[in-house]
Structures are given as structure tokens and as C-alpha cells.
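Researcher: I'm preparing a figure for a lab meeting and need a structural model of a single chain. I don't have an experimental structure, so a prediction will have to do for now. The sequence is pasted below. Please return the structure as C-alpha cells so I can convert it later.
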Amino acid sequence: MDNTFPAACRLRNERDIKAVLARRDIFRGRRLIFYRGPMPTAAGSGTGEEMKTEHRFCLAVSRKCGTAVRRNRIRRLLREIIRTNRGRIPTGYDYIIRIVDAALTDTKIKQDAFIADFNRYFGWD
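Model: Understood. Here is the structure written out cell by cell.
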């Protein structure tokens, strides 16, 4: 299994992001909020190209989370969780993952804290 996190797995198109947010399929964890929406078909994507991935992600980390170093560390941790567990994530969906305000008070960001929310959302053991 390929364990990379290519650009095709990233949700960047504003129209697609708004479509996921409008769907309002939301799960709130202790530190993360997951939004989920169905992936558009190749004809409905607006890009004119076929979808090359089974799911896409947008990692939304606001400036309230701290300095750029801290925000980038959070993104790296989330990407690593997604990258290593990609085969276990349901396909056919776009996901937006946001940080909950309560997570901002943690001085040390730990990957285990994020994994607990992923486990609850995706039903991993």
C-alpha cells in the first residue's frame, strides 16, 4: 500500500469545501471536528478530469491555534494519521477536519489525542 499523502488527496477547491460544509454531516470529538460530504463525480467536479483518489481531506487549522510553527505541526500530525490509516477510512467522501477550541489550551500537542478522535469517528479499535 502506498503511504504517501499526495496533492490529489487534498481538498482545496472552494466550491467543494462549501459543498461539504453545506451537507452538515458533522461529528464533534474532544479535539477535532469532522465534516463529511460525498465526493463529486468527475462530471460534477468542475475540473473536467476524473477523480484520482478515493477520498480527499481539508485540514483547517486557524490562527487561533498559535504560531505558524504550531499550526504546521498540527497539520503534520493530522496528515500522518490520515496517511498511515488511509486504507481504513471509508471511501467516496470528502472530509474537512477542524481543531476544537478546547484543543487550543494544550501546550503540547500529542498525536495520541488526535488519534482518539479518529478512533471514535471512524470506529477504529
